[in-house]
Amino acid sequence: xxxxxxxxxxxxxxxxxxxxxxxxxxxxxxxxxxxxxxxxxxxxxxxxxxxxxxxxxxxxxxxxxxxxxxxxxxxxxxxxxxxxxxxxxxxxxxxxxxxxxxxxxxxxxxxxxxxxxxxxxxxxxxxxxxxxxxxxxxxxxxxxxxxxxxxxxxxxxxxxxxxxxxxxxxxxxxxxxxxxxxxxxxxxxxxxxxxxxxxxx
Length: 201
What we know:
single chain
């Protein structure tokens, strides 16, 4: 069993719920959309691989898994509310499966924190954000590939505007006392992330 179907099955099992028929394939197709260069099936696979290593740290592993599956489910390169739409889709699905209101609210928050506009305080939110940001501490070769992929998604933005906005985002991560909130990701990725970020600024 490969990572994607295994993660999917285990996530729903952890929730004690049955996913709607065809939803797995629908999500995979979403991540394969042609406008995606970074926010693609590769990114989802990398996130889920990281999660497999830290699942034991999650308070609600099923919720974190499903939030990861949905966190970039909607991705319009010109959109301003991708996270909101992705969270809404996840919540509609979970509600149709009779998930509890508490689960709906937590999954919604987990997806919305991937906007990266604030440092999360809840443990599962910290874990998910660290997984999403693990790419910053990837090997130099993978980080360079990621940098090219992000630029490709924003090919419609003039170069000087893109560089200005990209620099602002990356500097905001460098300005944090720590990029990662969890001990696991700090120990494994913090130093390399700072090297990678400084290298492109």
